[in-house]
Write a structure and sequence with these properties.
single chain; about 400 residues; alpha/beta; Aspartate Aminotransferase, domain 2; 7-stranded mixed β-sheet; 4-stranded mixed β-sheet; 13 helices; binds pyridoxal-5'-phosphate
Amino acid sequence: MTPGISAIDPVRDPAIANLAQGARGAAAEHALNPLRSAADDPIRFFLAGPTYVLHGVREAQRRPPVAHRSAEFRGAYERASAGLQQIFRTARPVITATGSATLLMEAAVVSTVGDRVLHLVNGAFAQRFHAISRAHGLDSDQIVVPMGQAVDPDLVRQALRRGRYDAVTLVHSETSTGVLNPLAELARVTREESDALIVVDAVSSLAGAPIETDAWGLDVVLTASQKALALPPGLAFAAISERAERRMAEVPRRGFYTDLVRYLDKHREGGTITTPAVTLFWAAEAQVWGILAEGIEARWARHTALQGRTIAWAADRGLQLPADAAHRSPTVTTIAAPPGRSAPDLVKALAARGFTVSSGYGDWKPTTFRIGHMGEVQTSDLEGLLAALDELLV
Ligand SMILES: Cc1ncc(COP(=O)(O)O)c(C=O)c1O
């Protein structure tokens, strides 16, 4: 069992403990999240986020709220944060915000950038970082590459030789296209060429794709609850490096609800800056425990297997995958509908059969759809979706 896991075992909640007990035999065989039970079979929800939330996690959320400065909440907060550190692969604090990922994208920008920022842009969510820095009147540059491609570390090297930046922002898994940027290399180049802080949107990668926050020298790694963590929407989490903490203290205007220094201060007191979504926290505590019981590496491997099966299925049917083959995300695959078929119609036909997938994003909407194979989805669930697609494609 993963070290530290007993510390966050939610045994205080008998309903969850029973559920977990019942599923443990299956977990031993299949490395399942022990919170998965028969009530979840089969999963038919394959959005690129929000993702399917296990019945056991939804049950955990039914506990009544308590005061957020109480010992009870503090215990849950500390157990969830300790588990999140293992998921983020960091010895540094992982703070929690009540809000969506965009709140922490904005917080990361305003807390780390006093002057100039460089945005690496290869899709809609990477563009959002740029929109945020513009909204705050910050001086920003962008490296823009076409949708479907990853950002080339050499382009970043050149840009960092030309200009000085407080921070570089990027999206690890660009959910709008299904591209996974080469995060370790991009971080290495950024560190070699500059002292810019590395701000990473890991919204659709964390807990689904390998991320080594400390080993790769990442400064702010942020995610939301509703993607590969498979929690309900409403919470966002960020790991913050020691170097970032030091530098943020010098940034003059960090806002209030967006001030990551404030989040760190409150985190060290065992809580959140303001009243959090307490009941979502009960869910988070349970699910973090479930994720670590599966094992983070096992979880990464499961996502890679799901991606492999999805790609093989599409290739067998001659379907095009618009994301660069060398840089595909293990959590979401964009697939082009066969020539002459409308992708939105396929999405609707799947919905009529009880399966939910995402439509394509932006300009790709009429011609593509996206399968979110992330969170708690198992290969057996995916087979159900692919069989339904096969029926529609004949
Ligand atoms: C990569 C990425 N970043 C940011 C966001 C924005 O997340 P939120 O809607 O939680 O603010 C999303 C949402 O899909 C995303 O996929």
